[in-house]
Write a structure and sequence with these properties.
- With 728 residues, this protein is of the alpha+beta class.
- The chain is 16% helix and 32% strand.
- The strands form ten sheets. Strands 5, 6, 7, 8, 10, 12, 13 and 16 form an eight-stranded mixed β-sheet that branches. It has a five-stranded antiparallel β-sheet with strand order 1-2-4-18-17.
- A hairpin with a 4-residue loop joins strand 19 and strand 20.
- The chain is rod-shaped, with a radius of gyration of 44 Å.
Length: 728
């Protein structure tokens, strides 16, 4: 159905060609009108020429749409090839030899370009594109470039054969683009990708198709008004590192259009090109119709250093665009040989010059090349409009908006630059939730200074960046106890390196948190101290604890147990105790002190050791039956059992916890209490613990046990083995 619609539309479009292209004229700076009227070939144009009449080949673009940037000379009558031959005339306008001479590309065009593909992106179909190209190349004695040979190929925006409908204006634009590529790079292959419409939703995918099909050089001779959010369109369709993408700056004077505003493309401005009696043989001024200025939305790329525009500045480079010094073009849809200008001519000229310079380097944005390489023909006069006489609309020495850095001068300005090599010797030193990463500079910086490094961790979105100073930075926000490796990339204005090799792994750690809930049970010139493990071990297993008394600084230590006995204390002296925890990273701060306790001789003056006898085992109903519940004291009989006489006043023994469902502590004492203020045995969940105790007996020779945990549903079993007793 698309082919039928195209054929129907073509009947009316092609029949109306004379009216469409030769209607009401606009005006631009002129060439030598007498020579044009006489139909003689122009050997050159005067920069102070009279006015010429032109017509935009594409209409005003609606919002969200683009129009081509080609201008047709309407004061130069179209001539067929037969008419030129009959009158022994050459086409009017600059041909390949003129352009190669003007831009110092003759030698490169004769030897370079083979194997490179330049893609042309345009809207609608040109049914005569191949024939137009053949006529142009034949006229100027260029090698044939027919369809089916691999030299010229035409596809739809998806890379297939479902071509869009035809359009007269865009057909001439297509002829201009493919013929300018032929003029500059006759050995290059040409890929024409035709979008369904001049919408970014069609032109953008056509760019992606060209890149996908292997084109390393993509020319776009169209543009539309900038819009908020265009950066997302830019990222979707024009961000192709390692590919030259040119975009014409416009044909309506001062102002910025998209996609020329994209920082990912080479924005191509326009000049008036005339012969001159100087060493070059040519002179250029900024063409008044070229677009230029400061983008409203796009960020400034790293390689642009001008200070009068905080965002992206247009243009980067330029080439001939003034229709008054326009190029010779053959387009059947325009009636034959015509003269055309506009930055639509400049964009493919620059793309083809880039192709002569060779393949761009992978991962780089070729717009940077002329900024680093230099060597362009500087254009120092002319203007694109009114902007307060600043460089944004006025050509001047050095960089300016209308012509950027200038026009091609051989291929040197477009020769590839490379991203830096990968950084080397990456090492990592762990700290507390962070790692200090250091590295060595790459073996090669690619010819430009490294501006930044980026360090990335092997897991999580953890990075740090470097801008100056020693080659190191600290990656923070890491998880203590987790092993990380790190790699580094280097960035210059040309591009970003591949990543370095991974560092050896490093595990950030900190000292543990301080222990909690320290309790002390006094003994004879001693105190039995217990505690809860820290909330965090700092990412490394705790290797030990140390208990310190106050006063006297008496100590005891463990290799991980949560209790120990401090000896050598002075009886009848009040003591408190603090605990520290150790891991591979160091020692924690001291815990909060325990409640004060006072060591004194045990009740009773005579101690009687006995064989260890189990007086409590709730697992089997010995002493008490069933599990302990949190905050519920239970009492069991001691005297009269296991060799403990009724006259005993205190006992020694081992208290053991097992089967606990939650971490907590046990309290053993002579008086039953549901909420004890101290603990006898602290323990984590699921870890059997034992503790030796000395404890006075309660009324009737009993002991009471209380389990304390965070939840009322917590349960545990308890065991008590008596090892001796005291009597008065």
């Amino acid at each position: 159905m698309g082919g039928i619609r195209g054929a129907i539309r073509a009947i009316f479009v092609w029949a109306a060609v004379g009216i469409a292209l030769l209607g009401t004229a606009t005006h631009a700076p002129a060439s030598q009108a007498g020579e044009v009227a006489a139909g003689r070939a122009l050997g050159g144009f005067s920069p102070a020429a009279p006015v010429v009449s032109t017509r935009h080949l594409c209409g005003i673009a609606a919002r969200g749409m683009a129009r081509c940037h080609a201008l047709l000379r309407t004061d130069v009558a179209p001539r067929t090839r037969a008419q030129l031959a009959a009158a022994a005339l050459s086409p009017v306008g600059y041909g390949p030899s003129d352009l190669l001479s003007a831009y110092g590309l003759g030698s490169a065009a004769a030897t370079s370009g083979a194997g490179e593909t330049v893609a042309i992106i345009a809207a609608f179909d040109s049914p005569t594109a191949a024939a137009d190209l053949a006529t142009y190349r034949s006229q100027f004695v260029l090698p044939a470039c027919a369809s089916g040979t691999g030299c010229f190929r035409k596809v739809d925006q998806n890379g297939g054969t479902n071509l869009p409908v035809a359009d007269v204006g865009w057909s001439v634009e297509i002829a201009l683009d493919i013929e300018m590529v032929s003029a500059i790079c006759p050995a290059c292959s040409i890929l024409l990708v035709e979008a369904n419409s001049p919408s970014s939703n069609d032109l953008g995918p056509a760019v992606n198709t060209a890149v996908r099909m292997g084109a390393a050089f993509v020319s776009n001779s169209y543009g539309g008004s900038e819009v908020a959010g265009e950066d997302s369109i830019d990222a979707q369709y024009f961000d192709h590192p390692g590919v030259v993408i040119t975009a014409s700056s416009g044909d309506a004077g001062y102002g910025v259009l998209f996609p020329a505003a994209s920082p990912h493309v080479i924005a191509v401005g326009g000049t008036t090109l005339s012969r001159a009696a100087n060493a070059r043989g040519w002179v250029e001024t900024a063409w008044s119709g070229a677009g230029s200025g400061c983008s409203a939305y796009e960020p400034k790329p790293a390689w642009q250093q001008d200070t009068g525009c905080p965002n992206r500045t247009v243009a980067d480079v330029a080439a001939v665009a003034d229709p008054a010094t326009g190029v010779a073009l053959y387009a059947a849809s325009a009636g034959g040989w015509v003269v055309v200008g506009g930055t639509s001519a400049a964009a493919p000229i620059v793309a083809a010059a880039d192709a002569l310079a060779g393949h761009p380097a992978a991962g780089t944005y070729p717009a940077v090349y002329p900024y680093v390489r230099g060597g362009t023909y500087d254009v120092t006069s002319g203007s694109t409009g009114t902007c307060g006489s600043t460089y944004l609309c006025t050509a001047m020495a050095g960089y300016d908006g209308p012509t950027g850095l200038g026009t091609p001068h051989g291929t040197a300005p477009f020769s590839a630059l490379h991203a830096p090599g990968a950084p080397m010797a990456v090492s990592a030193a762990p700290g507390d939730a962070q790692v200090d990463v250091s590295w060595s500079a790459p073996a090669s910086d690619g010819g430009t200074s490294i501006t930044s490094y980026l360090v990335s961790a092997s897991s999580g979105n953890h990075t740090c960046s470097w801008a100056s100073g020693p080659l190191s930075c600290v990656v923070g926000g890491l998880v203590n106890g987790t092993a990380y490796s790190f790699r580094v990339t280097a960035t210059t204005i040309v591009g970003t390196s591949s990543a370095s090799a991974w560092s050896a792994s490093a595990t950030p750690r900190s000292v543990p948190d301080r222990p909690a809930t320290v309790t002390a049970t006094p003994g004879d010139a001693s105190a039995h101290v217990s505690w809860l493990a820290p909330a965090s071990d700092g990412g490394s297993a705790i290797t030990g604890y140390a208990v310190t008394s106050s006063p006297d600084a008496k100590t005891c230590a463990t290799s991980g147990a949560l209790a120990c006995t401090v000896s050598g204390l002075t009886n009848d002296t009040s003591y408190t105790f603090t605990v520290t925890a150790m891991n591979i990273a160091g020692t924690s701060s001291a815990s909060a002190p325990s409640d004060p306790v006072t060591p004194r001789p045990a009740t009773g003056s005579t101690y009687h050791a006995i064989s260890p006898t189990r007086l409590l085992d709730t697992r089997i109903g010995n002493g008490l039956s069933g599990t302990f519940k949190s905050h519920l004291a239970r009492t069991f009989q001691v005297t009269g059992r296991g060799g403990v006489p009724s006259g005993a006043t205190a006992v020694t023994g081992n208290l053991t916890v097992t089967g606990q469902t939650q971490a907590g502590y046990l309290f053993v004492g002579p008086v039953a209490t549901n909420s004890p203020s101290s603990s006898t045995l602290n323990f984590p969940k699921g870890d059997d613990r034992a503790n030796g105790v000395v404890v006075a007996l309660g009324a009737g020779g009993t002991l009471s046990v209380t389990y304390v945990a965070a939840s009322s549903t917590a349960r545990t079993q308890a065991i008590f083995d008596v090892t001796g007793y005291f009597t008065p």
